[in-house]
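Reviewer comment 2.1 asked that we show a complete input and output for one of the modelled complexes. We chose the magnesium ion case, as it is the one discussed in the main text.
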Amino acid sequence: MADIAAIAARLDDAARQARAIPQITGEGGELPLAEAYAIQRAAIDHRLARGATLVGVKMGFTSEAKMAQMGLKDQIWGRLTSDMVVTNGATINRARFIHPRVEPEVAVRLKVPLSGEVSREEAFAAVDAVAAALEIIDSRYENFRFALGDVVADNASSSAFVVGPWLSADTDMSDVAMVMRVDEAVAETGTSAAILGDPVRSLVAAARLAGSGGLILQPGWTVMLGGATAAAAIGSARTVSLDAGHLGRVGFTIEGDAA
Ligand code: OOG
Ligand code: MG
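Response of the prediction step:
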């Protein structure tokens, strides 16, 4: 059995100091998913103890492009905390990240609790608003390399997220063209349909997976439904934007140097 508290503290320190650590499973070790999720929870508890609050969850590996990029096939989920929120258009400091990457995503805000096995209709009925979003992932592991247990323990690489203007719940999010630019150049293009064929399926999966981890998705929470394309490295970038057609635009600026 892994030393859950010790690994959680190491991951939390790595995130706070923006310094990479070796993979947990590095030397042929194993990390069963139940233990990995226990580490995730314990690491997030450190953030909560410092005053952050839970503001939602994120899904990972919900598109073929992401699965292919990282060589993993199972959907995973992580917790979103208030200290990860970046306002649309804001400037963030490069020093807070190790080797950041960005992904074009769709986000929903919930209006009622959602948990366990829910139908597509129940998932839709729980949605309060829909938005285009960008997720900044920043694996705490050296070289952004990990096995499934590692990345689950590391809260699905989650580091920061930016949500565009919230639109009404009936806004069609099923097949929206997305163009993500890094320093004005097109870095990735895709469609929201790449997210499990329809992003609402990712919300259904989020309710089930978080529910099996004992977490009920709460009204007011944001659910990041997963990257529609591969992630783009932004280690030396200054501007990032996403144009998502009728879902609108979202972006941010980076200043300063790596720590
Ligand atoms: C894990 C996080 C994956 C997504 O949207 O698929 C993820 C990683 O690729 O480091 O956030
Ligand atoms: Mg993501």
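The helical segments are 4-17, 33-49, 64-70, 120-125, 148-153, 199-212. We note this here for comparison with the apo prediction described in Section 3.2.
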